[in-house]
Amino acid sequence: MATTQNTYTGNGSLTEYSFTFPYLEESDVKVSLDGVDQLTTAYSFANATTISFNTAPANGVAIRIYRVTATDSAQATFFAGSAIRAQDLNDNNNQLLYATQETVNRRIDSTGGTMSGDLNMGGNKITNVADPTSNTDVVTKNYLDTFSFNPAGTGNVDFTGNITVAGTATFSDDVTINTTGALTIPDGTEAERPTAVTGMIRFNTDITQFEGYNGSSWSSIGGGATGGGADTVFFENSQTVTTNYTLTTNKNAVTAGPITINSGVTVTVPSGQSWVIV
Description:
The structure is a single chain. This protein is mainly β. It has helices at about 85-105, 140-145, and strands at about 5-10, 15-20, 30-35, 35, 45, 50-55, 60-65, 185-190, 200-205, 210-215, 220, 240, 245, 255, 260, 265-270, 275. The protein has a domain at about 5-105.
């Protein structure tokens, strides 16, 4: 395969880099740093095969010197009755040859190939992609939508930014949250309670309290006594029972009245237990 480019890595001090491909015009030789084409004012030709940068490319910068042969017009044009020079014929042939070499080197074959630079899709889609199997494979929308997060056996997974999950996320192991901030949990009215599963917790905006589902009913959790400043004097409860409730086994209950039990709602006090309204 013909050489149409040379690549280097900057070291912060070297300013001159040679290239090994032939060209027709100096304007056909292009230079990029980290994939960004440079203006011709940023460098010059030290000689026919060496680029000299005004400022040394920084350490680690990817340098690419490559050829893009102009094809808007032929190098030489022939007219009836004019002399035909061998140099003109060679220049035209080389123009076609160089342009063909560049096309071959930079195209991606339909059977597969390797990119040597970034691919800008210009807002277009890459379609009909298979789900990933290797760590560096592209992730499809289908794979992301149906992704099951299960790091068991693969070590810890750390998230350092915000994570937004539009669906249900299932963790098969403990979840540790290391932050000085806070955890935001679901909130809503009693009418907005989800289909309950044992262990669910949420914030009830009707009674302004945290609540949890114990397997048979929702009940307030945490909170404790409230009061002004650091006072913890007042234990508050709602005045209306809107959901069926059964006292926890081997537990008594006390409630500040008056209390209204809505029509069709049942409060069950198991045998041997007591519910006192004061």
